[in-house]
Amino acid sequence: MEINRVTEAIVDEAFKIHSEFGPGLLESVYQRLLVHRLMSRGLRVAHEVPVPIACDGILFDEGFRADLIVEDLVLVELKSTESNHPVHAKQVLTYLRLMDLKLGLLMNFGMGTFKDGVQRLANNYMRSPK
Fold this sequence. Notes:
With 130 residues, the protein is of the alpha+beta class. Helix content is 36%, strand content 32%. A 5-stranded mixed beta sheet has the order 1-2-3-4-5. The longest helix has 19 residues, at 3-21.
């Protein structure tokens, strides 16, 4: 599936969830709802994916956990806070670099409007073509 179609499906379902449930739920609840909705669309979704990180020649099995990876193309980082902080976008960009993925979505369900809580972030430091 093409990356833009995957991204469109993710944003569409997240918007529906935000419209239906509003802000204020825990991040884990939004994650479960979004996984369910995306899988119902036939998309492959991995959640809470442990991602190893290498340092000084040592591979640590779990450097971090990616909230969602959809179709092995798009990383989705979920938040449920009253505002976005610059560190959230930096976190997504770092995850993209470490995973060698092109595109990430930062989705903050805690914002008053869904539009204000969504950021599309691109990795400009790809190691290999995908």
